[in-house]
Amino acid sequence: EDQVTQSPEALRLQEGESSSLNCSYTVSGLRGLFWYRQDPGKGPEFLFTLYSAGEEKEKERLKATLTKKESFLHITAPKPEDSATYLCAVLTSNTGKLIFGQGTTLQVKP
Amino acid sequence: KAGVTQTPRYLIKTRGQQVTLSCSPISGHRSVSWYQQTPGQGLQFLFEYFSETQRNKGNFPGRFSGRQFSNSRSEMNVSTLELGDSALYLCASSLSGQSDIRGYTFGSGTRLTVV
């Protein structure tokens, strides 16, 4: 069964304390892996798409990487405004379905 | 360009009632997908419409239905509301649908509370 698991569920960091969020997936074929950011009471906002193992994408303090079994979202020197829930989603190649993980809620304290 | 517009933003309904939510996708996008988001279950796929046809459906009871109009605007309807239907309902717009590798653009959602 296709599955996407994110860890940890919640993460509390001090401002400037770098860390990584994990998205592991078990799918029969990967067409793409997406990262979204969601602020409370709002819809998810697209961050990155990764297509193949070894690929990396960066945006400001965020860097997403992809291996054959998982993706990491690295947050370097986070600021309080980076506080949000980060969602990972996998697009499967055989069914064409988009499967979301449960998300990691990040809180960055000043 | 205008984003995905969902109306209303908030809704309070009583058990047993029915509700209709609306979504206007980004101009030019022909696909609209609906998701239910709850703290316990995360984002659960409801259905996807493309050019007025339902193309995919998730594992939700028949009380959940939807439609898409010729201008790509979509509505979803929930009949005989239950307490467990309380959730954030999200609409996502894309050019070609769930399998679009360019990803979705989400609306801000409709927060439905059933009392």
Précis, in short:
The complex is a heterodimer of chains A (110) and B (115). Chain A is an all-beta fold and 110 residues long.
Detailed description of the structure:
The complex is a heterodimer of chains A (110) and B (115). With 110 residues, chain A is mainly beta. Chain A is built from no helices and 11 strands. Chain A has strands at 3-7, 10-14, 19-26, 30-38, 45-50, 56-59, 62-66, 70-75, 84-92, 98-100, 104-109. In chain A, the strands form 2 sheets. In chain A, strands 2, 4, 5, 9, 10 and 11 form a 6-stranded mixed sheet that branches. Chain A has a 5-stranded antiparallel sheet with strand order 1-3-8-7-6, with no helix packed on it. Chain A is globular, with a radius of gyration of 13 Å. The termini of chain A are far apart. By secondary structure, chain B is mostly beta strands. Chain B has strands at 5-7, 10-13, 19-24, 31-38, 42-50, 53-57, 64-68, 74-78, 87-94, 105-106, 110-114. In chain B, strands 2, 4, 5, 6, 9, 10 and 11 form a 7-stranded mixed sheet that branches. In chain B, strands 1-3-8-7 form a 4-stranded antiparallel sheet, with no helix packed on it. In chain B, β4 and β5 form a beta hairpin. The mean pLDDT of chain B is 93.
